[in-house]
Design goal:
Layout lengths: L7 E4 L2 E4 L10 H5 L2 E9 L2 E3 L1 H14 L8 H14 L5 E11 L11 E10 L6 H6 L1 E9 L16 H12 L4 E5 L5 E4 L3 E6 L2 E4 L8 H12 L4 E3 L4 H6 L2 E6 L3 E8 L2 E2 L7 H15 L4 E3 L2
The structure holds 4'-deoxy-4'-aminopyridoxal-5'-phosphate.
The site of 4'-deoxy-4'-aminopyridoxal-5'-phosphate has 13 residues, from α6 and β13.
Length: 296
C-alpha cells in the first residue's frame, strides 16, 4: 500500500505522502513556538525506549496544557506505522504537537485545534562521525537556559532559539557545539544534548535545568549495571575545567566524547576510557536490541 521509496508522514491520524504533510501559516506552533515535540531513533527495526519517549511527550504536552485527540496506544501505533510506511529499519523519528489554528492569528490559545505530526528520516547523526571519533570541541556560551520559572526545562518545546543562538556562537568560535549555563553560571547542557563529566572515575551530570534526556538515563542505567559510580550534581565551570573526561549524550548522537572546552584540552585531549567504554556498551546494547519496541 505504501510506495517503495516513497516518503510518508503521519498527520492527525493518517499516514500521508510527505509532500501533503503541511502546516498552516496560522498554526500557533509556527507563529509562537506554541507546541512540543520529541525525537526518537530506530535501529534494526526497533524503536529505542519508545514508551519513555512517549511518556516525556505526554509530560511536555501536559505541562503546556495541550490536549490532543490521540491516546498513548494510538501514538505508539502511529509511530511504528510511520516508520514501516517509509520502509526504514534505521530511522530518526520526530513527533510534534502544536496548538494549531485559532480563529485569529493572535496569541490567545483559546479555540485552537491542536495538530499532531510524525516525521521520519533515515538515521541522522547530530555531529559528523569524524568529529565524534576525534572528540568534539565545545564552547561555554553566553547563552543561559531559560529560567525554570519561564519554562520548565523538562518540557521539550518548540522554543529552541537559545539553543540555536548558542550553536551559532559556538560555530563562530570554530567549535562543534555550545554549552548553555543557568542563572548561577553552572553548566546545564549542550544545545541539543546532555552533558557528563568524569572525575576520578566517577561519572557526574547536572540534574537541574536540563531536559531529562532518554540517552542520559540510559547512561545512568549502564553505569549502574556495570558498577561505574555515578552522581547527579551541579556542574560548575571549575568542575568542567578539572574534568578528566567530558561527554555529551543525545538520541541523534548517542554518546559523544568532548576533547576540548573553550580551546583547552580535556585531560590529555583524547576521548577518555570511561566515555569510550560507555559509548561501546551503549552501541553494543542498542545493536543487541536493548529496550527496543518492534516496528512490526
Ligand atoms: N537536552 C536538550 C536541550 C535536547 O534538546 C536534547 C534532545 N535533543 C537532549 C538534552 C538529549 O535528550 P535525548 O537523549 O532524549 O535525545
Amino acid at each position: 500500500m505504501y510506495r517503495n521509496g516513497g516518503r510518508y508522514a503521519w498527520v492527525n491520524g493518517s499516514v500521508v505522502p510527505e509532500e501533503s504533510a503541511v502546516v498552516s501559516l496560522f498554526d500557533h506552533g509556527f507563529l509562537y513556538g506554541d507546541g512540543i515535540y520529541d525525537t526518537m531513533f530506530a535501529r534494526r527495526g526497533l524503536i529505542f525506549r519508545l514508551d519513555a519517549h512517549l511518556a516525556r511527550f505526554r509530560r511536555s504536552r501536559m505541562a503546556i496544557g495541550l490536549s490532543i485527540a490521540f491516546g498513548e496506544e494510538e501514538l505508539r501505533g502511529a509511530v511504528r506505522e510511520t516508520v514501516r510506511a517509509n520502509r526504514l529499519h534505521d530511522a530518526y523519528i520526530k513527533i510534534i504537537a502544536t496548538r494549531g489554528v485559532g480563529s485569529e492569528p493572535l496569541l490567545d490559545p483559546r479555540g485552537c485545534r491542536p495538530n499532531v505530526f510524525i516525521m521520519v528520516r533515515r538515521s541522522l547523526s547530530q555531529m559528523p562521525d569524524a568529529a565524534v571519533a576525534k572528540g568534539l570541541s565545545v564552547k561555554v556560551t553566553g547563552v543561559s537556559r531559560l529560567p525554570e520559572t519561564s519554562l520548565d526545562p523538562r518540557v521539550k518545546s518548540l522554543n529552541y532559539l537559545p539553543s540555536v543562538l548558542a550553536r551559532m556562537e559556538a560555530v563562530r568560535a570554530g567549535c562543534d557545539d555550545g554549552l548553555l549555563v543557568d542563572e548561577q553560571g553552572n553548566v546545564c547542557e549542550a544545545t541539543g544534548s546532555n552533558i557528563f563529566i568524569v572525575r576520578s572515575s566517577e561519572v557526574r551530570s547536572p540534574v537541574r535545568s536540563i531536559l531529562e534526556g532518554i540517552t542520559r538515563q540510559a547512561v545512568l542505567d549502564l553505569c549502574l549495571a556495570h558498577s561505574i559510580s555515578s552522581r547527579g550534581q551541579p556542574l560548575t565551570l571549575d568542575d568542567l575545567a578539572a574534568a578528566d573526561e567530558v561527554f555529551l549524550t543525545s538520541t541523534a548522537g548517542g554518546i559523544m566524547p568532548v576533547t576540548r572546552v573553550d580551546g583547552q584540552p580535556v585531560g590529555p585531549g583524547e576521548p577518555g576510557p570511561v566515555s569510550t567504554r560507555l559509548r561501546t556498551l551503549f552501541d553494543e546494547q542498542v545493536e543487541a536490541g536493548w529496550g527496543g519496541a518492534p516496528i512490526d
